[in-house]
Design goal:
There is one protein chain. This protein is α+β, with helices and mostly antiparallel strands and 329 residues long. It contains seven helices and 13 strands. An eight-stranded mixed β-sheet has the order 1-2-11-8-13-5-4-3. Helix 1 crosses helix 5. The longest helix has 26 residues.
């Protein structure tokens, strides 16, 4: 059962001290992160250094210039049986059934020479990209953005480590750039006159995506300013505020696992809104062989209840279960 969060307060936290050397300021930020993760489970990270206007410009250009044939050629196996990829590629809209579409890409360091690729390890794929003559700035931007988001997310994790009573470098080794299974998803929700049928939650709310827990260490999300997310609290479902410049951060189920639910993964869902908008999550994942020993955070009581879990196994089973529960996105 998901952990019900006590509130829907979503603070904005200036994370810039986490990039610096002032230990006292880092501790102050860590205390704010601790309060947010133990509260609604969400916070906005401000002063992050990412050009979110450029991000929106490039992603909007990409979605507006992709042809149906290009989308099909890049589509994952669920939509195009000629493509063996199950993570990297295009996730297609289906006329009359599904309106949302997206493009997901993985670690640019996953080349044919990478040992995990050479061994055929599940969840590892060499990225397929749109034609670079037709979309000249998409791949260069995408690869730079991946690196930028990995570094930003790692800095946020240093604040989380301090919040949990650990050294700030506690998670660094698991998030090594060569091996991380992190992914970028560039999701477009369109405005349509004849929108396909949508799902309805038990409380009658129309939904674009049903309630779920993120399969990640943390999720770092930028989206256009159209309110759509809700979190489940002890008082029922509550709307999350929007931001035009900051990244929304929440823990995934691996953080919940290793912290014995001290930092739970908040149960959340996407309301149906018939409006053109973008949702651009970065799912921070560890490397395939990474194992973070579960622990009791500073201030927690009780005992460690969870066994160690290799990240590759966690991710493979978690993503499969998400598709079984909520369908192929």
């Amino acid at each position: 059962m998901p952990v019900l969060m006590p509130s829907a307060e979503v603070p904005t936290i200036d994370i810039s001290p986490l990039f610096g050397d002032d230990a006292k300021e880092k501790t102050r930020v860590a205390e704010e992160i601790n309060k947010a993760c133990r509260g609604s489970g969400f916070f906005y990270a401000s002063h992050h250094g990412v050009d979110v206007q450029l991000l929106q410009d490039v992603v909007n250009e990409f979605h507006r210039t992709m042809t149906d044939q290009e989308k099909y050629d890049l589509a994952i196996h669920a939509y195009n049986k000629n493509n063996s990829h199950i993570r990297n590629g295009y996730y297609m809209a289906t006329k009359g059934k599904k309106a949302v579409e997206s493009f997901c890409y993985l670690n640019p360091r996953f080349t044919e020479e990478h040992p995990m690729i050479a061994a055929g390890t599940p969840m590892h794929e060499v990225n397929l990209w749109p034609d670079e003559d037709r979309h000249p700035r998409f791949r260069p931007f995408g690869e730079r953005y991946y690196t930028e988001m990995l570094r930003l997310s790692t800095v946020i994790m240093r604040g989380m480590a301090l919040a949990l009573g650990k050294p700030e470098s506690f998670f660094d080794a698991a998030l090594a750039e060569d091996d991380t299974l992190s992914s970028v998803s560039l999701i477009r929700y369109p405005y349509l006159e004849d929108y396909p049928p949508v799902k309805t939650g038990p409380d009658g709310t129309k939904l674009s995506f049903e309630d779920h827990l993120d399969v990640s260490m943390i999720t770092v999300l930028f989206q256009t300013q159209v309110q759509n997310l809700q979190v489940e609290t002890v008082d029922g479902w509550r709307d999350l505020p929007t931001s035009e410049e900051n990244f929304l951060v929440n823990c995934g189920t691996y953080m919940a696992h290793v912290t014995n639910d001290y930092f739970p993964a908040p149960n959340h869902r996407v309301k149906f809104v018939n409006a053109e908008r973008l949702s651009l999550p970065f799912f921070l994942n560890a490397g395939h062989h990474s194992v973070i020993e579960p622990f009791l955070p500073e201030g927690a009581t009780g005992r460690v209840k969870n066994p160690p879990l290799a990240y590759g196994d966690y991710l493979q089973h978690g993503l499969r279960a998400l598709i079984v529960k909520n369908g192929q996105t």
